[in-house]
Amino acid sequence: MAHLQSPAAVVRPDNAHMTAVALSSDGRTLYTNGDYYLRVFDVGTGKLRTRRTGPQLGLEPLPYHDQAWTPQVVLSPDGKTLAVCAETEIALLDPVTLKTRARLEATARITSIAFSADSKRLAIADGGVAVWDLVGKRPIHVFPSPDSDAPRPTQVFRAQAWGGQMAALSPDGNTVYAASQEGGLLAWDLTGTRGFVAARPGPALTNDALAVRVSADGRKVAYLANILVRVDVRDVGTGRIVEGQYPDGVGVQGGYLTWRPDGRAVLGVSGYSTIEVRDPRTGALVQRRDFNDGVTAAEYTPDGRLVIGTDRGHVQVTDASSLLMRVDPVASVIDGPVQSLALDPAEHAVAVEGTTQRVLVDYLTGRRLRSLPHLTFFAPDGSTSAVVDDTGAVGFQTDQGTRWIAPPDPSHAYGDRLSAYSHDSTWFASSHNHQVGLWNARTGTFVGSLPVSGQVAVGFTSDDSTLVVAGIDGSVETWNLRPEAWIRAACEIAGRDLTAQEWSTVLPQRSQEHVCRGAGS
């Protein structure tokens, strides 16, 4: 300890204003960043060995620090990788030769990076938080690549973490943390085995998806892919993907999917005049039918019908099994194409949305019932309706839209077209602004939200115990809605019960209880 009273070495370079440093594992080399250059110093002599600019490292120019931020330089725990940050890019270097092994891209200014203890993962804070697997995968080439076939880092996790300026990984690399200067802390389980939100297993999608939809029982997810364009189906439990079969080499084109209520068929809508029905177990084509109008949306009804919206603003109703017409095509109910349909089973009605109009139509008779001021979804038992205004704020009505349970709340503006009610009409879920929101539809109370990185579809399992969140990127997460799961996860994070003061602050109307069984008080 006596040796800590004075520095082992002092490096005072001329004309350098670095604000981030990293020391080699043997203590002989110092790396610096923060003043347009990566500089490398000999610790023993204090002399500059070399310096590099961003372009020399294959990056954008290295920036100069400011009062609140500095570009970082970090050495991995095993001493074999040097990470050098520019504004929105990171170079992974050999710390001896300074040869660039890989370049990672962030979505905004990088405020923090951290390696896992085994040096196999890297966490990045850039307004969100991302985790990269540095072991990587070999690229798949259509043509020979000049960059070799060596494994490349792959991003294995991405989430929005508003206000998160710092990122860190647990020693085993299976938990990533994001913290803010205001004291907020978020943690994500990268294995999908802990907490009440779990990532489900499964291979990546082979093609980019145009649309995604969760089946009515929450057991499968359908993707409309954009190569030939085809419908693929993932099993939520196993992760297995069943790819659509195209014996004639022609796939459905467009961007709308819907499931039959029994989960035995999935429908792809073309945007032209064709719809296709496929068996989700095999991917085989079951039915194909052409219509006079371009088909832009479709939904199955609980009573055995298929409601179709067209590019001319028409609504057509067919038999769900035969696809034969049950109701004569309704004259245009909106101007322009139908963009989405939302069923009201209690009234045998469907909400038809276009670019500037929303109307409720009786799908048994084709009669127009009333105009709708906002995007509207209906509880299966007819007890409530969820209303989403143009900002994404969600409110709830009852008595056929004549009385508010709770008006739209702009503080939780997470509503959009891809929404779902639970089967018992208690829960309502939707996604907007990089969040999945969950509400108690009977009380209008906002329950909570889950950060997501892109477009997702939502759906509930048959027993309404789990919310399934399926990303258009192929990711699938399940949110356990049982209160006991929330309590268990909170106890695992805290490691103890609430103190008396904490309990009185959070639950002032209830007597304190011992909640975290087996945890310390």
Short synopsis of the structure:
With 521 residues, the chain is mainly beta.
Summarize the topology:
Blueprint: E1 20-23, E2 29-33, E3 38-42, E4 48-52, E5 73-75, E6 82-85, E7 89-93, E8 100-105, E9 112-115, E10 121-125, E11 128-137, E12 152-160, E13 166-169, E14 175-179, E15 185-189, E16 197-199, E17 209-214, E18 220-225, E19 231-235, E20 241-242, E21 256-259, E22 266-269, E23 274-278, E24 285-290, E25 295-300, E26 305-310, E27 315-319, E28 325-330, E29 340-344, E30 349-353, E31 358-362, E32 368-371, E33 375-378, E34 385-388, E35 394-398, E36 403-409, E37 419-421, E38 427-432, E39 435-440, E40 445-451, E41 456-460, E42 466-471, E43 476-480, H1 483-494, H2 500-506
Antiparallel strand pairs: 1-2, 2-3, 3-4, 5-6, 6-7, 7-8, 9-10, 10-11, 11-12, 13-14, 14-15, 16-43, 17-18, 18-19, 19-20, 21-22, 22-23, 23-24, 25-26, 26-27, 27-28, 29-30, 30-31, 31-32, 33-34, 34-35, 35-36, 37-38, 38-39, 39-40, 41-42, 42-43
Q: Which features characterize this protein?
A:
521 residues; Methylamine Dehydrogenase, Chain H; four-stranded antiparallel beta sheet; 2 helices; 43 strands
| Backbone CA Rg | 28 Å
Quantity of strands, as a count: 43
Query: Per CATH, what is the topology of the domain at 2-191?
Result: Methylamine Dehydrogenase, Chain H
Strand order across the biggest sheet?
1-2-3-4
The average pLDDT is 85
Computed structural class: mainly beta
